[in-house]
TrEMBL record, chain A:
Transmembrane segments annotated in the record for this chain: 25-44, 84-107, 119-144, 175-199, 220-243, 281-303
Subcellular locations according to the entry: Cell membrane
SUPFAM superfamilies (alphabetical): MetI-like
Main location: membrane
Signal peptide residue numbers: none
All residue ranges annotated as the ABC transmembrane type-1 domain in the record: 85-302
Protein's name according to its UniProt entry: Sugar ABC transporter permease
Pfam families per record: BPD_transp_1
Coiled-coil parts of chain: none
InterPro entries: MetI-like, MetI-like_sf, UgpAE/MalFG_permease
UniProtKB/TrEMBL annotation, chain B:
Biased composition (Low complexity): 7-22
Places the protein is found: Cell membrane
Annotated ranges, domain ABC transmembrane type-1: 101-301
Organism whose genome encodes this protein: Isoptericola cucumis
UniProt cross-references to InterPro entries, sorted A to Z: BP-dep_ABC_trans_perm (IPR050901), MetI-like (IPR000515), MetI-like_sf (IPR035906)
Chief localisation class: membrane
Segments passing through the bilayer: 40-61, 105-125, 137-155, 175-198, 219-241, 283-301
Protein family according to the UniProt entry: Belongs to the binding-protein-dependent transport system permease family.
Keywords: Cell membrane, Membrane, Transmembrane, Transmembrane helix, Transport
Key word Cell membrane present: yes
Topological category with respect to the lipid bilayer: Multi-pass membrane protein
Name of this chain's protein: Sugar ABC transporter permease
Disordered: annotated span: 1-35
SUPFAM superfamilies: MetI-like
């Protein structure tokens, strides 16, 4: 094998020699192919469809006609859009900040408690984290059931007699309260564990130095630990904002409990209603593109931090 | 895909066990000087919050083993009473459950195999070769993994329904059709996850094997591949969790009642039950059946998922 330096096929590791530039492309081929079919084509279809007239005639086979930005104009003028977008943004921000706030609280609490209490807290958080979404929403519907739910019973015991038979999911305000409970309950574990892991990575020398200088526990927390975990906080908050924009499933499942659908729809549900419900594919495509662009824009800082990882 | 998905592990590490830092808290001098009373009070607060957080899971399992008549009675019982497994047999006897279970198993199985194969090859390419277009590919992968199902499902629905006109095996309600969509959704993150593992096995090890007379393929299979096994297992479990739990795409792509996956089936089971005054005991038994395999598998991978994300953030 080593007799000639110009061997072609049996030469060693390609990372060194750069002999066979075709190999990496062949290795990427299956992944690229499935991405093109599963995501690439749908995105392309969406862009094209959002620029086309795709009404009833097209449902029956007539060729679609180019409509420019008409669909976007039509959707923007739709009375339903503004409340949906406003609700989505408000829901997303409230939930993301609430989740990160509670997660930060739990993480710092985990630092301060006895060792076995910390393990109990971690196990409990893992259980909540691992519960599948559909199961979690179903359990919350049972907890908040208007007739036999345990929450109403507890509230009555505590003296709120108007809670007896109160239908949480029937009004938008309390509907979103329950939705917030579900989303926060499910999302806090990831945030708390990440921040806690970040807190444990702060080196002991730093803490020792601070203590020698006479800092007390609170000062160490506020002046040293929190500034050092700020990058973690930023990433976790960003991810939470992105994830809380896409709460279609939680809302859809809670709406089954008798909620006024048009007053509780968020962006994902609005797309679902436009597309699957009223077969307005161009309108649904236009809103979808808005959601995709929003996600890409919000993801940019996160992706940048990951690219740094890749280069390292 | 769902709210619990896709924290990006950027560094391959040995699994940190069920909880990072749980086993070895290390010296914790900050708390040494704090007055004992304060620590006790905080511990009590921690336990109280744990109780609140675990309650939904506890309530699910408790309701699943309680007769429905007992669940309707007031006051509710917070401890197991009249323990029964009848709710579970009621669920399994439901006409849809076994079909949905079979559907979920097939979708999950195909998805795991495709995701692992495709992502592994791609991870090999980006961690062992420097080639033109590598950076753009990595960038694209990172952005693609953030795309929400909610922004794509209408297009995927139309695409599969047109596939179905010529090849029903790829159309709406087909196992293969939705498995391809799941594969596309999971491949980017899995490439990223495996990339760390592949990069963690030095190419020199393989070279050493080749110096000792192995062919390149054999060196790879005998030396590198076994070292990658933990990474493949973790990625496989991750793909299992995602495909098993996925609801949004399944709701749109599997509209027919006979082809529902388990999460979609649970929703219609609840709706059907609602028509005759919900049988919460059975619904909770169904939720428990779906949740238990997930919780078990989840404990395997979570250490890696958290520590990876944080390692990247602290360094960056």
């Amino acid at each position: 094998m080593a007799s000639t330096t110009s061997t072609t096929s049996t030469s060693g590791i390609a990372i060194r020699r750069r002999r066979r530039p075709a190999t990496p492309y062949l290795l990427l081929l299956p992944a690229v192919a499935v991405l093109l079919v599963g995501l690439g084509y749908p995105v392309y279809w969406q862009v094209v469809t959002s620029l086309q007239e795709y009404g009833m005639l097209q449902q029956f086979g007539a060729p679609p006609t180019f409509a420019g930005l008409d669909n976007y104009a039509r959707i923007l003028a739709d009375d339903r859009l503004v409340p949906v977008v406003a609700r989505s943004i408000a829901f997303c921000l409230v939930n993301a900040f609430l989740t990160v706030g509670i997660g930060l609280g739990l993480a710092t609490l985990m630092r301060a408690v006895h060792g076995w209490v910390r393990i109990v807290m971690q196990v409990v958080l893992l259980l909540a984290w691992a519960t599948p979404l559909v199961a979690a929403v179903t359990v919350f519907r049972w907890l908040f059931d208007y007739r036999t739910g345990v929450v109403n019973w507890l509230l009555v015991q505590l003296g709120f007699s108007q809670a007896d038979g109160f239908a949480w999911l029937a009004q938008p305000a309390t509907f979103f309260l329950v939705a917030t409970f579900v989303v926060v309950w499910m999302s806090v574990p990831f945030v708390a564990m990440s921040i806690y892991a970040g807190l444990t990575q702060v080196s002991d020398e730093v803490l020792e130095a601070a203590r020698l200088d006479g800092a007390n526990g609170t000062q160490i927390l506020v002046r040293i630990l929190l500034p050092l975990v700020r990058p973690v906080l930023a990433i976790v908050l960003l991810l939470q904002i992105i994830w809380d924009l896409r709460v279609f499933a939680q809302i859809r499942l809670l709406q089954d409990g008798g909620a006024p659908v048009s007053e509780t729809n968020l962006l994902g549900n609005f797309i679902y209603e436009l597309g699957v419900g009223s077969q307005d594919f161009s309108g649904a495509a236009a809103v979808s593109i808005f959601v995709l662009l929003l996600t890409v824009a919000l993801s940019a800082p996160y992706v940048r931090s990951l690219m740094k990882e890749d280069a390292a | 895909m769902s709210a619990t998905t896709e924290p990006a592990p950027t560094v391959a590490r040995p699994p940190a066990g069920p909880a990072p830092g749980a086993g070895a808290p290390g010296p914790r001098p900050t708390t040494r000087r704090r007055p004992r009373a304060g620590k006790v009070a905080l511990s009590v607060l921690g336990l109280a919050l744990s109780l609140v957080w675990v309650f939904p899971v506890y309530w699910m399992v408790l309701s699943a083993v309680t007769p429905n008549a007992r669940l309707r009675a007031t006051p509710p019982s917070f401890l197991p009473m009249d323990f029964t497994l009848a709710n579970f047999s009621g669920v399994i006897a439901d006409s849809g459950f076994l079909g949905a279970l079979r559907m979920s198993l097939m979708i999950t199985g195909i998805t795991i195999v495709l995701v692992l194969a495709f992502a592994f090859l791609a991870a090999l390419a980006i961690s062992r070769w420097r080639f033109r277009g590598r950076a753009s590919f990595v960038l694209a992968v990172l952005f693609i993994q953030m795309l929400p199902a909610e922004g794509l499902f209408i297009a995927q629905y139309k695409m599969l329904s047109s596939f179905g006109e010529t090849a029903p095996v790829l159309g709406l309600n087909s196992v293969l059709g939705i498995s391809i969509l799941y594969t596309a959704m999971l491949v980017p993150f899995t490439i990223w996850m495996l990339r760390g593992f592949v990069a963690g096995v030095p190419a020199e090890l393989e070279e050493a094997g080749m110096v000792d007379g192995l062919s390149r393929t054999k060196a790879f299979l005998r030396i590198t591949f076994p070292l990658l096994a933990p990474g493949l297992v973790a990625s496989g479990v991750y793909a299992f969790l995602q495909a098993w739990n996925e609801f949004t795409t399944a709701l749109v792509i599997l509209p027919s009642e006979s082809s529902q996956s388990l999460p979609v089936w649970l929703r219609s089971f609840l709706s059907a039950s609602a028509n005759r005054g919900i049988d919460w005991a059975e619904v909770m038994a169904a939720s428990t059946l779906i949740a238990v395999p997930v919780i078990v598998f989840f404990l395997f991978v979570q250490g890696r998922m958290t520590s990876g994300l944080v390692a990247g953030a602290v360094k960056g």
